[in-house]
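Morning. Coffee machine broken again, so started the prediction first thing and wrote up yesterday's gels while waiting. Chain of 154 residues, entered below exactly as on the submission form.
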Amino acid sequence: MKWSYEERKKKLKEICDISGREFESGMLVFNAEFVEYTEDNVFVVKYEILPWHRNPMGYVQGGIICTMIDNTAGAVAWVSLGCEAIGTIDLHTNFLRGTHENENHIITKAKVVSIGRRVVNVHCDVYNEDGLVVATANTNIIRLLSPDDTPIIV
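Came back before lunch.
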């Protein structure tokens, strides 16, 4: 990790701060609120559940939950690499329970599991207001390299 804990925490707070910003990131679209960034590098975000997040049965739609996971996991991977360019390779999500119509927010907790030369693996858990696990996910995120003017073709 290139940055200190305090530098990573400050950057994560900045990207969750939506005041005065237009649609620059998924964090704004989903009304993300920084909760904490722990000493053991767990990034916790609270997402407001908006009416358009719900499916016809009243539950938060799975794709919305995956986007919240991707936003949280991507952010913690990004700061762990010192804000290098990254992209999601894959996202494996297990849905364990639905959200209730009366719930107003979801909590995501993401932690970098490993940082390789090219790939960062992140685990993320999603909780409802009662603290019950709604979903778990693992994602692999690639470090994007700058274009090479002289690529080697193998």
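The beta strands are 32-37, 42-48, 86-95, 105-115, 119-127, 133-143. Going to sketch it on the whiteboard this afternoon.
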